[in-house]
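thread from #wetlab-drylab

HS: before we spend reagent money on co-crystallization trials with adenosine monophosphate, can we at least see a predicted complex? here's what I'd submit
DV: go for it
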Amino acid sequence: MNPTIEESLEEASPAEAVPSNFADLGLAPAFLDAVRDAGYTTPTPIQLQAIPLALKGRDLIGLAQTGTGKTAAFTLPILQRLAQDAAPNGRGPRGPRALVLTPTRELAAQVDESFAKYGKHTKAKALAVYGGVALDPQERALRRGVDVVIATPGRLLDHLERGTVKFDDLEVLVLDEADRMLDMGFAPQINRVVAQVPKYRQTMLFSATMLPEVEALARRYLRRPVVVQVGRRSEAANTVTHAVYPVPRDRKSALLVELLSHSDMDSVLVFTRTKHGADRLVRHLERAGMLATAMHADKTQSQRTRALEGFREGTIRVLVATDIAQRGLDISGISHVINYDVPQQPEDYVHRIGRTGRAAQTGDAYTFMSTDEIAMVRTIERLIGQPIPRISVPGYDFGTVAAD
Ligand code: AMP
């Protein structure tokens, strides 16, 4: 029901043939030689999916563990970008153009080796910078100038604070093993590093899992990312959780405020049946102190674009949309979809919840069901072939309060 990876990839490269070897991925001869020298004959699945997108400059979320070939999946495109535009930009020597953050020094060293291995026919210079060893040699190397820095967040901050390195020329940022970095408590350091790199850049995030914290990181730092994933696919594809809230029609807005006030839902797409319903609901949410905006046919394209940007950047928490807004809406990192009105067409339920889980692979879909919508919910359950669990909120469930 939510084959979001394929959808994302289709969007990124509509009618192109599926590549199957390194030459089809768009890599230049210097890199084809390097992978051949490394003894690789066929790209791994993550390489097949990620390399063409990375070469196009797209932001990526790569859900892949160590051992899948993920390092080459970001190293090769970075090296190719460096080689394509190697001349200095007239402002004197350039600062590093790519930065890879890793959780451990072992991983930093491995990634550094990959840059050496795949970049052996180019002039790119990479440097690993991690703690536990003397600062001075790293400092000297950084001052001499490198193209790629591979670093653990803490040690990199030391260098940034000493002014040994500046990222004004940075073009590509990679967060490798993002889940492990967060596990190790590096979130504050990552935030401080990213605050010092240019806003316009390509960002690639790799993680074995898509936990909410990773999702939040991705939402913060990536722009319209494409998700590529290998392994454990069915598990992740089933992470959308459905629930139905029985509630009288005239209590729906109060229930929504209640849910939003007591939860960590941080980017919520709410569907209403009518434009007026959407506008009314936005006013209600605003009165309750929530950042909300409406999106429907009466809104101009620029209003819609602004609404989407605000939603992506987190300045708008709730986007209230009618069905027209639903298709082709590419919103990454939606945590929740709420069907404020049960969709008239059961197929629309599937489309709507396809909005969540799209980039993040997680997300919840809640449906508010008044008494006159019970039959429509049953039809949806028949279509999706499974019952949707009911959640009863005391004081709101029409089974426990007077019917509307
Ligand atoms: P990684 O997941 O990046 O840690 O890579 C795991 C191992 O797979 C590394 O030792 C790589 O050298 C190797 N490797 C990467 N890409 C390929 C490939 N296309 N074919 C064979 N081995 C590869």
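DV: The first strand starts at residue 60 and ends at 63.
HS: ok that's useful, forwarding to the group
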